[in-house]
Request: fold
Amino acid sequence: MTPREIIAERKDAKLLGRGGAAYPAGNKWEQLLGIHETPKHIVCNADEGEPGTFKDRFIMERNPFMLLEGMTIAGLVFGATEGHVYVRGEYRSVQRGLMKAVESARKANVLGDGILGSAFSFDVKLVSGAGAYVCGENSALLNSTQGLAGKPRIKPPHLAEVGLFGLPTLVNNVESFANVPAIVSMGGKAFLDIGHPESGGTKLVCLSGHVARPGVYEVPLGSVTLREAVFDPELGGGMAEGRGKLKFLHLGGQSGPIARTDLLDTVYSYADLRKARLTVGSGAVVVMDETVSVLDYLSAVSRFFIRESCGKCTPCRLGNGAVLKILEDLAVPGVSGRGKLKTLDELCRVMTMGSFCGLGRAATVALVSGWKAFPDEIERYAMHDSPAAGRFAPWRAEAAARPGFPGQDGRRPLRGKGSGGVPATAARTPPKCGPSSEVPEIVRSGTHPPLSSDFYHNVILLYRLAV
Ligand SMILES: Cc1cc2nc3c(=O)[nH]c(=O)nc-3n(C[C@H](O)[C@H](O)[C@H](O)COP(=O)(O)O)c2cc1C
Ligand code: SF4
Reply:
C-alpha cells in the first residue's frame, strides 16, 4: 500500500485521536504528509498522566507490538527513520517491558535497519517522563523529549510543521497508534463498522472508583450506554459491595465533566456524549457513590491542578489556587459563602479563556459541570451560614466539633478577612434552596458569557484572590 492509500483507509476508519482531544487521526496524518520538509519524527504520547486513566499502560503491558507496529507503519508513511515513545516516569515496569519488546522486535528484524530485508529502516527510542501531568500536552512533551523544560510552547507553528528538534512531527496517543495495524489489515470501512458512524472502532474504557469490577474494558463505540458500562455484569458489574447508590460519574479524566445519574442512558460514543455536554476524553470513567460530597470531590480535583500547573501563565498559576480557596471557604461550617459564587464563576471564565494551554483551559470543566449537576448542594454550602456541610459530609461535622478545627470561633482556615463571626457550633437550619441570584448564569445555562474585555481587570482579580 502507498502512503496515500494508508491515509485513505485511516480517514475511512474515522478514528478519533484517543489521547483526549478526539482530533480525526486521518486528517492529522494527511496534514503531515502535505508537509514536504524532511526528516519527520514519529512520537507516541504514553505519558498517561490523567488520573483514572490506565489504558495505555494496559496496551504497553499486554500487547506492546501493536503499538510498535502502528508506529512503524507511520514511519513508512512519512519516511521517518526514528520514533520516540514518551512513557510516564512512574511506569518503570512498563518501560522495562516495552524496552524488551523493542529488543525482540529488532531481533526479529521488524524494527531497525532494513526491516524484513527491505530498504526501509525504522527504530524506536524510549523517553521517560518525570511525573508531570503537563508533559502529556503534546508541545510540552516534545520540549521534555528534547531535554528542555516540560512546558507548553506557543502554537502556531503547529507541531506538524515545527515539532521535535524543529522538524515536522506526528504525535499520537498509544491507543491511536495501536489501532493502525487493524485499520490497515481490515480496511477503514470495516473498522468504521465496528463502532459508531461518526467514530469507528472500539474504545478502551477505564472504570474506577466505587464500582464492583474496576478495570480496562474494550467496547465498540456506540454499543453501550453509560448505565451498561457501570452496571452490566460483564462490564462494571454495578456498585462495589458496601457502597451506596451511584451519585455521579466523572468522565474523561480530571479535566473532563461530571455526569449525574439522569444522563446514564447516554450512549458511549463521541457524538452522543458531546450532545449531552459530556466527553469520552481519555476514556476514564470514575464512579462515585452517594456518600461523596461534590464539594470535597471538586476540591480534590482542584488540588490536582494546583500541583500540576507548570506556572507559565497567570490564569492557571494563580487561578487554580484561587478556586480552591473559595471551595475550601465554602466548606467551612459557619462561614458564609455569599458573594463567592459570582467570583468563582468569573474565575472559571478567566481560566478557561485566558490560560495558555489545555491544562488551565480545562481545569474548571469538572467544577462547572459538577456545579451545574448539583447546584443545590453547592448553593447550600454557599448560603448555609451554619454547619450544614455535615449534611453532605458527615465526617466534616464531626471534625468541626473537634478543638482547633478551622472555622471555629468564626475564624477562617485560610488567609483572608473575617468570617462574619458565626460560631461553627451554632446550629441553624440551612436555607431552602431555590433559584438564587447567587448562582451565576454559567451554571444555569451551561454556556460561557464572553470574557470581560478588560483583561487587566481579570488579571487583577486573580492576584486579589491569590494573595
Ligand atoms: C494537560 C494535558 C495533558 C495531556 N495528557 C495526555 C496524555 O497523557 N496522553 C495523551 O495521549 N494525550 C494527552 N494530552 C493530549 C495531547 O496533547 C494530544 O492531543 C494527543 O497526544 C494527540 O494524540 P491523539 O490525536 O492520538 O489523541 C494531554 C493534553 C493536555 C492539555
Ligand atoms: S495553563 Fe499555563 S500555567 Fe497552566 S500548565 Fe498550561 S502553560 Fe502552564
